[in-house]
Amino acid sequence: MKHTRSKHTHRGLIGTGLAALALLACLLGLASGGTVAAAAELGEPTIAHGKSAIVVDSAGNVLYGLNPDEEMPMASITKVMTAMVALDSGKSFDDVCTITPDDFDGTAQQAGYVETDTPTFRELMEVMLVFSGNDAALNVATNVAGSEQAFVDLMNQKAQEIGMEHTHFANPHGLDAEDHYSCASDLVKMGRYALSHYPYIAQTVVKRSTTAHVNGYEVVLSSTDELVGSYAGMRGIKTGAEDSGYAFLGACERDNVQLYTCVLGADTADGRFEDTVSMLDWAYGTYQRLDPSRDSWVVRLQPWAYGLGLKVVVSPSDSTAGMVWPDGSDVSYSTTMAGPTTLLDAGTLCSTTLWTQQDRSLGGTHLRTRSVPVCVSAWPALCLPLFYDTATLGVA
Asked: CB-based contacts of 378: which residues, under 8 Å, 6+ apart?
């Protein structure tokens, strides 16, 4: 595992790195303790059902892929794009919507809306995202854009905007159609974008059920996502099922590590979830813990602002733990830090440090001066933490 750093100034502080000896000792100590391997045999998850699968981190780094760019039908995962385009329109959630008749066959997932129903836009969106109602998706589209085709044109424009190069939409619901396809790598990109930019989608796709008013009755419609509530850390987001196979676009967060998965072309409904769990178990089991800062460490002794030959102790305000992907990728940090001769008062913020790996955040910490100035030896060698109880040095 390599460690690199970047330096910059902030809020008038003099830009400099952390004390080189202290940071190097920390990083080398972590590595030598076996916490971070320079490289590892990562193995692979077992994909027993899907024809295509992928798992990526929050920055889009691919941790595993099986035919990730193969263009395939994506079924009701389509509805995530439908939701984004609908939200882009600015339509009010309280707007009353009209129902357009559909010609879906009896096997299509439907809430059962009839022309006399007057659901709100919010209700249609929830029925679409939670229950995966195809009639809800169609009516979201027609109420937003006036026609299905006009809405589909907006979907394809949005796909191009976010870089979905292997995707084309032909409808807003996802039922199999000519020229309606995507790929696993595009769909995890869409999932990351949706949860990052649309809080409503993130809040809705974790619901276990939703209520609708259909043909004069109030009905409770259950989620089609079997992993939310049963697999630790799941955050949604969308199932899919068609003659072409079963699909699932998933998101999960554990230990501040967000992962996105996609399975396409699974042979069974349960199989899409089994493959997803296999990828998540493998990925979370492969990450290794990194402790880049601890509140007991002394980073630097700085001149006290009020003289008298005393020093203030610069130390992390809290301990930081991150999860590192053990493939040899650099772990880097950026920091702001007052120059070594700058006078500082006790109990003040003097630095902020952030750690990353391949653009994914591993966490951060603030460096503060401890509350009590200290008198330490004028001999540099005797200022090393070896000669002091560093956990209590400079603490009232």
From this structure: none
